[in-house]
Amino acid sequence: MKKKYWRCFVCNDIHYGVAPPELCPTCKVLNAYVEITAEEARKILGGGPDTAFAPVDFREAIERFAAGNEFMVNPDEEKVQTLLRGVFENEKNHGFKYCPCRLRTKDWDEDLKLVCPCNFTIHETYRGVKNGECWCGLFVRRT
Amino acid sequence: MAKLLMFHGRECPHCKKMMPVVEKLEEETGVSFEKHEVWHDEKSADLMRSYRTVIAPKCGGQLKVPTFLNAETNDVICGEVDYDKLKAWAEKK
Fold first, then answer.
1. Is the pLDDT higher at A49 or at B65?
2. Which residues of A touch B (CB under 8 A)?
3. What is the DSSP letter of B51?
4. Using CB atoms, which residue from A83, A94, A105 is nearest to B63?
5. HEC-encoded secondary structure of chain A
6. Annotated domain spans of chain A
7. Overall domain count for chain B
8. Which of A63, A116, B16, B27 is deepest in the core (most CB within 10 A)?
9. What confidence tens digit (pLDDT) does each residue in A22-58 have?
10. CATH number of the A4-45 domain
11. Residues 6+ apart with CB under 8 A from A128
């Protein structure tokens, strides 16, 4: 199923997916999404041609992400720091926050599966494992 | 002697943990691993990718590090393993 870009005609939220959300999560208007091109989406997401993307604190982002889930960021701070260094190095050198414990294949769809946080909940190191963790160990199951 | 390869990543904690295990094995048994860092060395990355059809099926469908590969038998281990397991693997004919 091919994913497309969608724009809320009220508040300009952008959605990338097979189908648009029924309810816009930002302005709460129903059936507000219209399909747009990738180029239009890029322009809107970039905030205009002269606007730099606002930086996101990745550490804070993953802490907030984990807070609503059955896993948490690994309490082993040294390990986390090593992994975050790798994630940022990979973003600088290879374009995305790739997992430092796997290698990209150069196949676009395959490699998107390596972007941190990845969907580790389906991986053999986590799914059904009591003290499960993602492959690299950045996220661990709460005990 | 079999050609043994180790693919690892500089910022991979599992690889960091395995490095002294590998070095101890090399010192004590005389086996030798050709070590390839794959995130900062594109040649090493390409080498690992060239073994994708051998490695991926044995590593959850992906190119994980650390991966140990016997280039002659295509025998593969991925992830952290203890000294004895790695030794038995490395000395397997």
1. B65
2. 79, 82-83, 85-87, 89-90, 93-94, 98, 100-106, 113-114, 123-124, 135-137
3. T
4. A105
5. CCCEEEEECCCCCEEEECCCCCECCCCCCECCEEEECHHHHHHHHCCCCCCCCCCCCHHHHHHHHHHCCCEEECCCHHHHHHHHHHHHHHHHHHCCCECCCECCCCCHHHHHCCECCCCHHHCCCCCCCCCCECCCCCEEECC
6. 4-45, 58-141
7. 1
8. A116
9. 999 999 999 999 999 999 998 888 876 666 666 789 9
10. 2.20.28
11. none
Interface test with B, best of A79, A80, A103 (most B CBs within 10 A): A103
Instruction: Give residue B46's domain range.
Output: 4-91
For the cut 90, the answer to whether the pLDDT of residue A143 exceeds it is no
A90–B13 C-beta distance less than 8 A:
no
Name the CATH superfamily housing domain A58-141.
Ferredoxin thioredoxin reductase catalytic beta subunit (3.90.460.10)
Domain of residue B80, CATH code: 3.40.30.10
pLDDT of residue A43: 87
